[in-house]
Q: What sequence folds into this?
């Protein structure tokens, strides 16, 4: 949960400068329409940021890329549908239950599928997360079917005006929740002994285990946090984007791109990466046919690979197996 | 207090320890000396649970602790100060010390003020730099921090891996003075050193390791007088 190595920080600053130029250009050229795109970009970007944070938390604690991360977000949306739209629970209660249930699921997956592999290579575990993603998606399809589902907005749908652009109240919930999640995760890793122990283990696994930090506990806690953050993202975005059983793969890919852009393992980087990806996507969708927007995430992955030939996983010394 | 019986540890197919048998008596300072690559670190790491033993036993207070996880072993009261200090370089001195008390987070409601005070008294420089990140400390200060961190778990057996490495003679003297003080307070110490002179002068009993085996053992005073030890290790 640090800012990553110096090259990574430089890359992130470079990307931020580029995005800033694009944003200014869009605002000048398109005015309030451009502002509209950027606001939508920040909304969806917040969700990418939360998904990216899930990737980062698990990666920095266990060196595992969890390809089931997007599924937690999908489950968040679907649970909201079951509990609130179908079950008639108040939205706040449905939200808390959703996050609680998906967190338990995340912890359960870790114990059932990841923990037994503790002596296997990281690559093996990563492949298992892909299997896990396919399993969760199949299960969701069986439970909820293939039709996208609708969840009511938390506080109505009356758009607010903002410098000639409009913003739905749910977007403000998305921003607020992202902020809260980032602060909570940050506080956990910087203020609690358990969190500091996990940071220590990411920095120096041997020394951390010598003071008593258990790799097994770290992994369980990391998966729980990643599931909680992912579910919260899915629950809060569901009223804006329809939730569907197969949304996890795309969300996962975009969250992963955002995490890589921000330097895998860095929570602040994940947030910045997510917001930038969201904004770039929406600006792309504005200028080009909307199908192109999904290519932005792929483009970022390819560019990062080109600029950082040592690969996505940071400096080789970082990848301890 | 600690008995190691016929311990063998491998790195893949390479055998680093060959049937090592040693003892550390309660309240004593025992030292292990030997050249580079003799297997000294591997021995301490195997006792602490970082490396797995293929054969043999580690018995601590009549309990078999062979191949337990490091976090279990530190809870049992064995603390290792690893070779090359291994402080958490991005964290402050204070955070490093608090992490040293990680295993005690549920006892005394996680209150470690007493231990902190003890460490700061022992190493006043750490108190002056408690807000500084550990990576910015000098080598000697980092070694003090590594020892302090290990003491925060209130160990009964302290394992030290080359605490003198890369330090100026004056700093080495002060660290060994601290070890003597800890010994007087009743702590049992197992000390790995390349600096055979200071190690044997400090210890009660010593072992000489050579290519994964114990080549020689005896009272520290006798080893200091031993011709082979004099020739090879005291130069
Ligand atoms: N991670 C490892 N993988 C493979 N071989 C290793 C590893 N660590 C140590 N070895 C080998 O095991 C043997 C013992 O190494 P060890 O580090 O225990 O020696 P040492 O006595 O502590 O040496 P030094 O005084 O240099 O610290 C050496 O031959 C070394 O090359
Ligand atoms: Mg060594």
A:
């Amino acid at each position: 949960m640090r800012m990553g190595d110096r090259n990574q920080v430089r890359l992130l600053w470079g990307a931020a400068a580029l995005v800033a130029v694009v944003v200014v250009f869009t605002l000048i050229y398109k005015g309030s329409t451009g502002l509209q795109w950027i606001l939508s970009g920040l909304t969806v970007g917040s969700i990418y940021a939360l998904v990216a944070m899930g990737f980062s938390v698990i990666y920095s604690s266990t060196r595992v890329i969890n390809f089931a991360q997007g599924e937690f977000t999908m489950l968040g949306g679907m649970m909201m549908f079951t509990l609130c739209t179908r079950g008639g629970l108040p939205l706040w209660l449905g939200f808390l239950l959703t996050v609680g249930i998906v967190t338990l699921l995340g912890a359960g997956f870790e114990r059932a599928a990841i923990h037994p592999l503790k002596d296997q290579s990281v690559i093996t575990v990563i492949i298992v997360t892909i299997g896990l993603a396919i399993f969760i998606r199949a299960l969701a399809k069986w439970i909820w079917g293939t039709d996208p589902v609708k969840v009511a907005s938390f506080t109505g749908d009356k758009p607010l005006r903002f410098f000639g652009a409009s913003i739905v109240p749910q977007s403000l919930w998305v921003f607020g929740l992202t902020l809260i999640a980032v602060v909570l995760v940050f506080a956990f890793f910087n203020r609690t002994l358990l969190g500091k122990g996990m940071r220590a283990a990411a920095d120096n696994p041997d020394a951390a285990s010598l003071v008593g930090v258990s790799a097994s506990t770290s992994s369980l806690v990391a998966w729980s946090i990643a599931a909680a953050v992912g579910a919260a993202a899915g629950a809060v975005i569901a009223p804006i984007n329809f939730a569907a059983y197969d949304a996890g793969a795309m969300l996962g890919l975009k969250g992963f791109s955002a995490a890589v852009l921000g330097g895998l393992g860095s929570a602040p980087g994940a947030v910045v990466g997510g917001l930038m990806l969201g904004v770039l996507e929406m600006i792309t969708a504005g200028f080009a046919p909307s199908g192109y927007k999904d290519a932005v995430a792929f483009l970022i992955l390819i560019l990062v690979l080109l600029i950082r030939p040592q690969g996505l996983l940071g400096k080789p010394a970082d990848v301890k197996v | 207090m600690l008995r190691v019986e016929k311990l063998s540890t491998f790195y893949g197919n390479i055998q680093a320890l060959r049937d090592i048998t040693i003892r550390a008596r309660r309240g004593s300072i025992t030292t292990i000396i030997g050249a580079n690559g003799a297997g000294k670190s591997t021995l301490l790491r195997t006792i602490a649970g970082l490396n797995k033993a293929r054969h043999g036993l580690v018995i601590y207070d009549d309990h078999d602790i062979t191949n337990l996880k490091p976090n279990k072993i530190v809870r049992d009261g064995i603390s290792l100060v690893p070779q090359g200090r291994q402080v958490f370089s991005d964290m402050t001195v204070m955070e490093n010390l608090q992490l040293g008390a990680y295993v005690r987070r549920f006892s005394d409601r996680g209150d470690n003020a007493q231990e902190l005070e003890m460490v700061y008294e022992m190493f006043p420089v750490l108190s002056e730099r408690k807000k500084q990140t550990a990576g910015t400390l000098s080598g000697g200060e980092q070694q003090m921090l590594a020892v302090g961190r290990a003491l925060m778990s209130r160990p009964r057996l302290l394992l030290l891996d080359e605490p003198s490495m890369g330090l100026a003679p004056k700093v080495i003297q002060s660290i060994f003075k601290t070890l003597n003080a800890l010994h007087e307070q009743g702590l049992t110490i197992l000390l790995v050193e390349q600096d055979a002179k200071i190690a044997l002068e400090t210890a009660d009993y010593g072992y000489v390791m050579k290519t994964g085996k114990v080549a020689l053992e005896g009272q520290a005073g006798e080893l200091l007088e031993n011709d082979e030890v004099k020739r090879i290790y005291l130069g």
Summary: The first strand of chain B starts at residue 2 and ends at 11. The CA atoms of residues 46 and 52 of chain B lie 6 Å apart. The two ends of chain B are 33 Å apart (CA to CA). The pocket of adenosine-5'-triphosphate (ligand 1) is lined by residues B 11, 14, 16, 34, 36-42, 83, 194 (CB under 6 Å).
